[in-house]
Amino acid sequence: MSPTENSSNIMPTYRRTDLRFVSGAGAWLTTDTGDKYLDFGSGIAVNTLGHAHPRLVGALQTQAEKLWHVSNLYDIPGQEALAAHLCAESFADLVFFCNSGAEAAEGMIKTMRKYHATHNQPARVTLISFAGAFHGRTLAALAAAGNPDYLQGFGPAPVGFAQCPEFSIAALEELVDDTTAGILIEPIQGEGGVRAVPPAFLRDLREFCDAHGLLLGFDEVQCGIGRTGRLFAHEWAGVTPDVMAIAKGIGGGFPLGAILATHAVGSCMQPGSHGSTYGGNPLAMAVGKEVLDVVCADGFLETVNDTAGYLRQQLSALVDKYPDIVSELRGTGLMIGLKCVCENTALVASLRGERMLSVPAGENTVRLLPPLNIEREDIRFAMDALEQACAHLRDEKAGTV
């Protein structure tokens, strides 16, 4: 059945902006009408190395000419290579590959529960997350975050989840009981407003979990793979989780997610306990390996930190100049939030008018998520766009436009 006039066959699950991009290079996108936009959204923290990075294009083309898919009924050499590299660069001993952040979060939830069942404590199923969290769109991931707006209309939410109202050990203690399996937390909440968890609290959380026999699960779907200037955001706090979900940046634009775990936790997932038909396919492994090779190369993350320092210095001056438009600079590294005084969607729209793309988030915040290899000249364009957008919004407020 064909769509009616002015309608589409696409389910209306998104409020899409009327832009159609047909190509991209570096930090820039080009529409079907030839207009160019500076991409400070990176596909919501996905395009780690920008658009059409030659090494990623080459890796994908080379693999595409060999083999696309065989399923996990067989050994996939690319999985072994990427898993070994991820484990060498992290706390993990074992990796499970999937296709998205929601799948990675869902698999992390299953792994944390399965661990306790394997250790003869099947009643320990409750996972505690924090207010403002976002762990994906599956029912369990939505229940874990506990946002009623996202759960409305989908029937009874899965049980076994609780939300802590603040980053507080005292508040957390009130929620822990004999059914508690572990804690889920994003070291930096992305959808929740680019709220960085205090490093001291992450350290206290590690001690709390150890003292209570709980597992600590980190969701680094958005803040991982160099986004904060370290390979993983939790490294800034000097702590490690028992299990972690990653996605977005690891694929550089190709669908890829993963669950990373210690041997003690990951080994509880035996044959039949979890699976993914497409997960870890040769195409994804080729691209993921190339992304990780680039990000882990000598000097890359140092450059990310230098770039972030330069950009954040400029943004701090912007906040000082336009306190009636933006009131606070948030985040770490190149995971940046501008807390707005005006409507965040108004700033996003005003930036779009200046040919710059950004992403709205919770707590009336605008996310700036440029590619990690963003050039200084592109940052200068971004700052000019931000200056013009803020000045325009100030004039609108004053009624002078």
What does this structure look like?
The chain is globular, with a radius of gyration of 21 Å. The longest helix is centred in the C-terminal third of the chain and has 23 residues, at 376-398. A seven-stranded mixed β-sheet has the order 4-12-11-10-7-5-6, with helices on both faces. The model has no long low-confidence stretch (mean pLDDT 96). The chain has helices at residues 42-45, 54-64, 77-88, 101-118, 139-145, 148-151, 169-173, 199-212, 263-266, 282-295, 300-321, 344-353, 376-398; strands at 21-25, 28-31, 36-39, 94-98, 126-130, 161-164, 180-185, 188-189, 195-196, 215-219, 243-246, 257-261, 326-332, 335-340, 356-357, 359-361, 365-368. With 401 residues, the chain is an alpha/beta fold. The termini are far apart. It has two domains: 26-52 and 299-398, Aspartate Aminotransferase, domain 1; 67-295, Aspartate Aminotransferase, domain 2, CATH 3.40.640.10.
Search tags:
four-stranded mixed beta sheet; alpha/beta; 37% helix; 401 residues; seven-stranded mixed beta sheet; 2 domains; 17 strands; Aspartate Aminotransferase, domain 1; Aspartate Aminotransferase, domain 2; globular; single chain
Write the topology of this structure.
Blueprint (H helix, E strand, L loop, with lengths): L20 E5 L2 E4 L4 E4 L2 H4 L8 H11 L12 H12 L5 E5 L2 H18 L7 E5 L8 H7 L2 H4 L9 E4 L4 H5 L6 E6 L2 E2 L5 E2 L2 H14 L2 E5 L23 E4 L10 E5 L1 H4 L15 H14 L4 H22 L4 E7 L2 E6 L3 H10 L2 E2 L1 E3 L3 E4 L7 H23 L3
